[in-house]
Amino acid sequence: MFAIRNTLASLARTTRTNNSILQFNRLYSSKSIFVGNLSYEIKEVDLKQLFERYGEVKSARIIVDHESGRSRGFGFVEMNETDGAAAMAELDGSVFNGRDLKVII
């Protein structure tokens, strides 16, 4: 009986620890968010400011053509999973600088 009680107590501690780790990962793990159909005039600072309304942005990159240096019309934003989901829900399909954004996590 004592061994079973110890095993159950150990299992409960492990479950609480795993739940804490999962919560920590959800809050602090980064997700890369694809942002498509961007206007060619948009700069990385503009993209970062757009997403900062929903939380801390770790990075914002606009992909450019290597030969011309011109934007290819899409980029990536890195932010935590919770804030990223909120940003995606609000921004996907919204109009930014005259273009309908496509936002995918």
Descriptors for this entry?
four-stranded antiparallel sheet, 3 helices, Alpha-Beta Plaits, 105 residues, alpha+beta
Question: How many structural domains in the coordinates?
Answer: 1
What number is the mean pLDDT? 85
**Gross morphology:** globular
For the largest beta-sheet, the strand count, sense and barrel status come to: 4 strands, antiparallel
Question: What's a quick, concise take on this entry?
Answer:
Helix content is 45%, strand content 30%. The chain has three helices and six strands.
Describe the structure.
With 105 residues, the protein is an alpha+beta fold. The protein has a single domain, classed as Alpha-Beta Plaits (2-Layer Sandwich). 45% of the residues lie in helices and 30% in strands. It has helices spanning 2-28, 44-52, 81-91, and strands spanning 30-36, 57-64, 71-80, 95-96, 99-100, 102-104. The strands form 2 sheets. It has a 4-stranded antiparallel β-sheet. Strands 4-5 form a two-stranded antiparallel ribbon. Strand 4 (95-96) and strand 5 (99-100) form a beta hairpin. The longest helix has 27 residues, at 2-28. The chain is globular and about 70 Å long. The model has no long low-confidence stretch (mean pLDDT 85).
